[in-house]
Amino acid sequence: MRKKLVAGNWKMHGSLAENAALLAAIKPALTGIEAAVCVPFPYLGQAQAALAGSSITWGAQNVSEQAKGAFTGEVSTSMLLDFGCKYVIVGHSERRSLYGESDALVASKYLAAQAAGLTPILCVGESLDERESGVTETVVARQLDAVIRVAGVASLAKAVVAYEPVWAIGTGKTATPEQAQAVHAYIRGKVATLDAGVAAQLIIQYGGSVKAANAAELMAQPDIDGGLIGGASLVADEFIAICRAAAK
Ligand code: PGA
Hints:
The chain has a single domain (5-247), classed as TIM Barrel, CATH 3.20.20.70. 46% of the residues lie in helices and 15% in strands. It has helices at 16-29, 44-51, 77-82, 93-98, 103-116, 128-132, 136-151, 177-194, 196-201, 212-219, 236-247; strands spanning 5-9, 35-38, 56-60, 87-90, 119-124, 160-163, 203-207, 226-229. 2-phosphoglycolic acid binds at residues 9, 164, 169-170, 207-210, 228-232.
């Protein structure tokens, strides 16, 4: 059976003091439950120190596709490894829309992350306009194909996919469990046409206004294998409850 994975995406939130309190609260509460937090770069060392030896792993929210060199402001895969990262989010819709990351750039980041031994959490998802014009599957397929083209379908055995409808991110407007399940099933089906074994094992997280109150119904869907949690991952009780709902 596939395992479930809940990952927090802290985005550009937190401070040394706030993070210390959050990490101290979630660590003992999630003993034995596999979960992850993707924190801002400056706090990777703090996450590593606080979480080493626990069942919670950590990672980053972005990475450079370049190995090293004159790339001011960028952070490489080997730097993430220096801080014990396991995961890195690539292709989050905020990076695609606010920072102009193309499908091709996202694919390069995915490739670089995997080559370094990091597990990419590849985000895909449609905007409200796209959903309303009925092209959700086309958009998600295009985003996935960009990665499969350069990295191959077998690479998905060492990746996580996060389906995050853009209209549900940070809006309080969650996809219904049925809406989410339909896209998750589409993604798994699409991968299955290329490699059924990889599809069966692929962790597909749902992201977009997941909270303690709606986590159980979402996690109960057959093709939803956990969540990528923004706002609610900053509130210890919320994050703990979501991780527990997924682990049931
Ligand atoms: P949200 O964000 O849970 O605050 O909607 C999810 C995400 O962007 O990963």
